[in-house]
Amino acid sequence: MPHANIVGLGPSDAQLLTVGALDCLRKASAVFPCNAAPATIDYLREHGTLVENPTFDGGALLRGVDADVKAAAASLQRGGAALAVPGHPLLDFPGLPNLLHQFSRTGIEATIVAGVPRSALSAAAVTPLLPLPPTAVHHSWEELVEIMARLRACCPWDREQTHETLLPYLVEEAHEVVEAVDEGDPKKLCEELGDLLLQIVFHAEIACEQGRFSAADVIDALANKMIRRHPHVFGDASISTSQEQMRSWELIKTQESSIRHRNSLLDGIPKTMPSLLYAQRVQEKARTVGFDWPQAHDVLDKLREEISELHGAMQQRDDAAIREELGDVLFTIVNLARRCGVDAEAALRSANGKFRLRFAAMEKIAGGGATALANRSLEDLDALWQRAKEYETGQVS
Q1: Is the pTM above the cut of 0.85?
Q2: What is the pLDDT of residues 55-97, one digit of tens each?
Q3: For the chain, what percentages of helix, strand and coil (3-state, to nearest 5) are there?
Q4: Which of 76, 99, 119 is the last residue of a domain?
């Protein structure tokens, strides 16, 4: 069986080539460089390696393009040949699984020879793993990851960030996506989704530098999870309703190693979620095991009961009881929204937006400015509110 080595060249600078990698390349019957810097190729030749011009496109091979994977495997079928790739093969070679599968099909035994990961040093910016195209050309996923690697190598602000310091930006970008959806602005939504994606790539790049996981691992984990949790799409299971799918989803989750240690069905819901959304997710989880109100009108009856208890607490002027009963009322309202097929968080967001528009209209009618409503009586404010509603419905111009 022919044997081939896949050798990491490190991040662009020949001086960062490991002793083990250089020794392996010297012993190879032929070395096929893949997107190596010209200076690195010259260095290899000067130090006794038999570098040959590849018959495949290096960038395409790194991406795992089938034709170039097959061409590379064909070149490496001669015994003792080596493929020299930038960085570390396991971290900087997205198409490695494709090449290894081709090796398996064609009977080639492979050895991975480690190299210094490109993301570990600022030298990564000298020669990018995947040459970036002009700005007018559509970029690929690999190029986005490459851009992030270069930002981490060259930009002081990007280099200083950690998982913890990025959290406020991640939350902010998620809220901006929600706002774009609410506004129905596809151009803004496209931009905000990109900003959110940047945060994901940013976190993945930091983890890659720490040797924990890469952006490719994030994609693999997500794809595998979607396939595993949709047996009716990718397997032979029979699921015909969304309720059946939710129950199946939760059952499959309980069998996954990452959450087997959980003590409760509710453990996977982040406690930092907005409270209305958290309440709705808790209730949805409970519903998967049948713990739910039979009908929406049953929730209305419960809501009347909770409001009555709140009224009693207010009459007694019991602050602790008022707080508790208000929480029960809100929780029940979320339950009612869910039973009516309404997202409580979105409903309240819409009400907030409506109030904000009407309040701004009141200020405009009153003369404009942040102080336009100051020192007015409640009767005047009520009258302005009614006029704002009339403007909103088109009853007056």
Answers
A1: no
A2: 898 888 988 888 999 999 999 988 789 999 988 888 888 888 8
A3: 65, 5, 30
A4: 119
